[in-house]
Amino acid sequence: MSVDETGVIQEGRERGSATIWTVALMALVFAVAMAIAIAGTARVARHRAQGAADLSALAAARLAFANPDQSCVRAGSVAAENGTAVTHCSVAEDGIVEIEVKMEIALPLKGRVTMTARSRAGPVHVTDPGR
Hints:
Elements: E1 2-3, E2 9-10, H1 17-62, H2 68-81, E3 85-91, E4 97-107, E5 111-121
Helix pairs in contact: 1-2
């Protein structure tokens, strides 16, 4: 670094190094932002799949005693309305329904990923509040 006759500092060989540091910092910020976005997308998809499984199990449990043959059919339609597909559905004799759903999403840098979720639901036994 040197000073010319007007008192202005001349940078010499370090001229333009701030541009390189700025570009490097911007690349780092971009990489961190992409990682956060990918993780957030996966997390949202997982929650959507779990919500669809829960709703499907509740829909099937509602019909478990009244029409057990239609329980899994109803669960499948609720799952489809929520963007998932039922991969397993079972209705036990005690009315407990077990559901498993899957949902495929596309993640940047990772490609197609399948999210799965499971849920159980059963009948509600209401006791007499007068007892």
